[in-house]
Amino acid sequence: MSMHAKCTILLVLSSAMVYGCGPSKEERKVIEALNKTKELADREAYVLDVDLDTDSDDAVFRFEAEVLDKDGDPIGKISGRRVENFGTVIAHRAWYDEVDPEEVKDMRAWERKEREKRRERWRQRRAERARKGEDGPGPQPGGEERPRPPFSGRRR
To answer: Please, which pLDDT band fits residue 154 given cuts at 50, 70 and 90?
Structure first.
């Protein structure tokens, strides 16, 4: 085998190893966005690794991340979504000083339970208002509700 062929093989293998290692671009973006949040800064915490679910066909990915304190001990879990090349949304936070770590081991199941708790509280409040005869404001008397202006796409 010639020296040129050996160098070519070495170059291809080394470049494959460089690109195959480390987090993806989207994972790096999620980690960067999470570490910039005020909530983590207030707790002197950071995220080191993210589990990004890239199995979906669309450009929206679910993520889960373990939050570590300044000593590297886990203090919570964060989950949310990342829109490819756009932004990151934190949907749920679970801090281990408020919730049992075993309870949030499966973050999706924990999110479903939390959602169901909120729905149940809403149903209870609504039933209480119905018993008191307070059904809420509804449409304004003497006319229909004013239509909303179309979305302009600009942030205010």
So the answer is: low
